[in-house]
Amino acid sequence: MEGLPTTTKTERRSRSKNLHTSKPSLVMAFFSCVAWLYVAGRLWQDAENRKLLANLLKRNIEQKPKILTIEDKLMVLGCKDLERRIVEVEMDLTLAKSQGYLKHQLPQSESSSQRKLLAVIGVYTGFGSYLKRNTFRGSWMPRALIWIFRWLLLSFLHVLSALLWFLTGGALKKLEERGVVIRFVIGRSANRGDSLDRHIDEENSKTKDFFILEGHEEAQEELPKKIKFFFSTAVQNWDAEFYIKVDDNIDVDLEGLIGLLEHQRHQDSAYIGCMKSGEVVSEEGKLWYEPEWWKFGDEKSYFRHASGSLIILSKNLAHYINTNSASLKTYAHDDISVGSWMMGVQAIYIDDNRLCCSSIRQDKVCSVA
């Protein structure tokens, strides 16, 4: 027991005092570190803010107002002024187009008169309608020549027929001098340049009375598109008061038709014909079947429209078709298609039963051949 170290009371008191005095020092050191970290963080944040402010100030200095060119102004304004001008020019172009100043207007040909015509008559024909065309040509031939023509058809004397075509060409020229242009309207064969196209070209080289729609394919199911193509192209080739579509199986009294048109000469927005309506055929396979029959309501009845045998449109309506041809909807039949287009404009419907080709009226201007 004597050899073991002993601790005096004084020593124990001294150690206890040192332990008590070291705790506040540690606390103070901890808070000093926290304060240092806070101050350092604020200084770093202030430095970042100063850097950001310096960059913004530099950017603002670089974007100081300067003398701008016209191109710079258009870029700054988002080309709004240019867009507005483009819209105005497009509106002016549409207005000019509707008034006859057309883009891609074809140069005046020998068939196009410098003066305004009374009417352009497009006679719808097909590749197999040679005899129908010869019959229709009788509508502008003198009566004596008609009988000679029929005799030549029966005799198949082609040389004399060519001579007669020369004489009828003179009659066609006289009609044009009176302000009436007549042309047989036909498209091109699905097989471009085949015998069908060549026969039409050969016939046209002799008669000079065809209006060939180069961009249209001649087919029965394409007739509604053909009438849109005809009106659009006709207004670009001739300046006339009226544009007329007539079938080649119709006998037309040209003098009576010219008198009717003279009476309506200054009538704008005129939609003239034998007005009718009727039942929509919804059963596939039947004559006059309408694939989009459901669009005509539960009653399945067509709206009022001019019979397809003979349709007359005034100049501004024909120009309307030309201007809007890309967006005009066509149905299964050409007369229904035209009637639907007229419903969307302020067209004046003129129902003239002299244009009803199946009518029994004595003064009618057309009849079924």
TrEMBL record:
InterPro entries: DUF4094 (IPR025298), Glyco_trans_31 (IPR002659)
Alphabetical list of Gene3D superfamilies matching this protein: 3.90.550.50
Domain DUF4094 residue range list: 22-99
Enzyme Commission designation: 2.4.1.-
Protein name: Hexosyltransferase
GO molecular function: hydroxyproline O-galactosyltransferase activity
Gene Ontology cellular-component terms listed: Golgi membrane
Family (UniProt): Belongs to the glycosyltransferase 31 family.
Pathway(s) per entry: Protein modification; protein glycosylation
Cofactor: Mn(2+)
Enzyme class: transferase
Tree of life domain: Eukaryota
PANTHER family per UniProt: BETA-1,3-N-ACETYLGLUCOSAMINYLTRANSFERASE (PTHR11214), HYDROXYPROLINE O-GALACTOSYLTRANSFERASE HPGT3 (PTHR11214:SF124)
Organism in which the protein naturally occurs: Gossypium tomentosum
Single GO BP term: arabinogalactan protein metabolic process
Bilayer topology annotation: Single-pass type II membrane protein
Subcellular localization(s) per the UniProt record: Golgi apparatus membrane
Function: Possesses hydroxyproline O-galactosyltransferase activity. Transfers galactose from UDP-galactose to hydroxyproline residues in the arabinogalactan proteins (AGPs). Is specific for AGPs containing non-contiguous peptidyl hydroxyproline residues. The addition of galactose onto the peptidyl hydroxyproline residues in AGP core proteins represents the first committed step in arabinogalactan polysaccharide addition. AGP glycans play essential roles in both vegetative and reproductive plant growth.
Entries under Pfam families matching the protein: DUF4094, Galactosyl_T
Keywords: Glycosyltransferase, Golgi apparatus, Manganese, Membrane, Signal-anchor, Transferase, Transmembrane, Transmembrane helix
Main location: Golgi
Transmembrane spans: 26-44, 144-168
